[in-house]
C-alpha cells in the first residue's frame, strides 16, 4: 500500500474496528502521525513558545489522529489473529508498548481468519 493510500484509508475507516489492516497501512500511518507531531510541535514552539507536545496545534493534530490510529491498531491486531482488546496493553508502561509494536511488525495470518479475509491474498505463494 502506498503512503497516501494508507493515510486516506485510515481516515476513511476512522471508526472501523472490524476487518484487518496490512503492515504497510499501519506503519505508513505511524510515520504520518510521528512526522505530523514533529511538524505541529515545531509550529507550536515557534509561534506559541510552548513545549512541542502541549501546544494547541499539536494537541489538535493528536486529537484528530486518535480514533483513526486506534482503529488501525485494532485492525492490525486482527490481521495477526488477535483480539483488538489487546490494544489495552498500552496501559502497561514500556512492556505493553513493546509487545504491541512487536505484534504490529509481525506478519499477518495467511488466508482468512476469524476477523475477515486476508488483506494481501495475491502476494502469498504456496
TrEMBL record:
Membrane spanning stretches: 26-50, 56-74, 86-105
Species name: Celeribacter arenosi
Protein name: DUF805 domain-containing protein
Taxonomic superkingdom: Bacteria
Keywords: Membrane, Transmembrane, Transmembrane helix
